[in-house]
Write a structure and sequence with these properties.
402 residues, three-stranded antiparallel β-sheet, single chain, binds acetyl coenzyme *A, transferase, 3 strands, 18 helices, Citrate synthase, Citrate_synthase_sf, mainly alpha
């Protein structure tokens, strides 16, 4: 006889919920999603309003502090972030330990985790000032570190940040410029990059954010927690999807071949899925996907790219899938990643950098969620239970008798 209270606590209740499809692991005041209606709000503001009217740093301030900044607060915040954009010179050496063909996400997991070895004055999670500095450092240094990951893999010299440039503009400058050929993105491209960052800033308790919270629940330092989030984001079912979308569009190759791939996506004996389609929470059009599609047109127009082959395939694929009973019935709509890969490719990013850009933008969401958790007086270490399905108790057999 098993005393269930000993196993499952005083209540005797135990929830078995693989994939956490209906279990809330925390309460949070940061992001609201209504998946059936296709609504996403940060601190009460609709994502559409934020994407159209704010810049990324304003959204960072909002996520971190709970309110949009006034003009003075915005100015101060921008100054604080730009103050922290440089990375320690020893950290720059860290990159050279990687192979040149390393995936930039592998580099990011390593170097972001290593930040805690460089910034000892922002690892005391119980000091509010240190928590704040850690958040500012992470937001400020991610573009520098992401651009360095790219530069390392293409064998070009690192570019130092320019604090007179905007957040997205500076990132593009560090990524695509060289000391011999400085690169200055057009305002339209900088704005598009900034908008992509806003659209990825937070999305409540997805796999990577839950990972950050779980790592942080043991009071690990914030840099280590964000590194764990980057690792969780890497997978193609999560942040790696935009890379996977582009690979899929390349594999499809032409509009004529779409029906063949739709058929494969519906075949239960085939592991193929339409990448960029479906979402655990949205059972309607992802509101970010609509803004991403608009941004896609703006960027292609700015770059003078006409008849982009991937865009033609993506649009036709979306049209066919949205009319197909399989996708309609399962409520599978394009998600935020469906169009972002086309934009990023047009801007000149290799596919291996797509998830890095997602991590850069999501860092503010991760650190805001981490901060909210640490500041909750009721915070507990995360410790999921399990349903044991292994061998029952058995007698030990000494090695000689096995
Ligand atoms: N193509 C074809 N069928 C799909 C797809 C798809 N993209 N997504 C889900 N389905 C089907 C499943 O086969 C399943 O069918 P069944 O009920 O007959 O078994 C049903 O829809 C439900 O799918 P689940 O995997 O159970 O749904 P879940 O909520 O666990 O998964 C996920 C959501 C992982 C996003 C899934 O839709 C998927 O793999 N999509 C493709 C990858 C992708 O685009 N990921 C990005 C997500 S957004 C982000 O992370 C930023």
């Amino acid at each position: 006889v098993i005393d269930i209270r000993k196993l499952y606590g005083e209540t005797g209740y135990f929830t078995f919920d693989p994939g956490f499809t209906s279990t809330a692991a925390c309460d949070s005041a940061i992001t609201y999603i209504d998946g059936d209606e296709g609504i996403l709000r940060h601190r009460g503001y609709a994502i559409q309003d934020l994407a159209r009217n704010c810049d990324f740093l304003e959204v960072c301030y909002l996520l971190l502090n709970g309110d949009l900044p006034d003009a003075q607060q915005k100015d101060d915040f921008e100054r604080t972030i730009t103050y922290h954009t440089m990375v320690h010179e020893q950290l720059a050496k860290f990159y050279s330990g990687f192979r040149r063909d390393a995936h930039p996400m592998a580099i990011m997991v390593g170097v972001v985790g290593a930040l805690s070895a460089f910034y000892h004055d922002s690892t005391d999670i119980f000091d509010p000032l240190q928590r704040k500095i850690a958040a500012h450092r992470l937001i400020a240094k991610m573009p520098t570190m992401a651009a360095m990951a790219y530069k390392y893999t293409v064998g070009e010299p690192f570019m130092y940040p320019r604090n007179d440039l905007g957040y997205a503009e500076n990132f593009l400058y560090m990524t695509f410029g060289t000391p011999c050929e400085p690169y200055m993105p057009s305002p339209i491209l900088s704005k598009a990059m900034d908008k992509i960052f806003i659209l990825h800033a937070d999305h409540e308790q997805n796999a990577s954010t839950s990972t950050v919270r779980l790592a942080g629940s043991s009071h690990a330092n914030p840099f280590a927690c964000i590194a764990s989030g980057i690792a969780a984001l890497w997978g193609p079912a999560h942040g790696g999807a935009n890379e996977a979308v582009l690979k899929m569009l390349e594999e499809i190759g032409s509009v004529e071949r779409i029906p063949e791939f739709i058929k494969r996506a519906k075949d239960k004996n085939d592991n193929f899925r339409l990448m960029g389609f479906g979402h655990r929470v949205y059972k309607n059009y992802d509101p970010r996907a609509k803004i991403m599609r608009e941004t896609c047109y703006e960027v292609l127009n700015e770059l003078g790219i006409k008849d982009e082959p991937h865009l033609a395939i993506a649009m036709e694929l979306e049209k066919i899938a949205l009319e197909d009973p399989y996708f309609v019935e399962k409520k599978l709509y394009p998600n935020v990643d469906f169009y972002s890969g086309i934009i990023l490719k047009a801007m000149g990013f290799p596919t291996s950098m797509f998830t890095v850009l997602f991590a850069l933008a999501r860092t503010v969401g991760w650190i805001s969620q981490w901060k909210e958790m640490i500041e909750d007086p009721a915070q507990k270490i995360g410790r999921p239970r399990q349903l044991y399905t292994g061998t029952p108790a058995r007698e030990f057999v000494p090695l000689a008798r096995r």
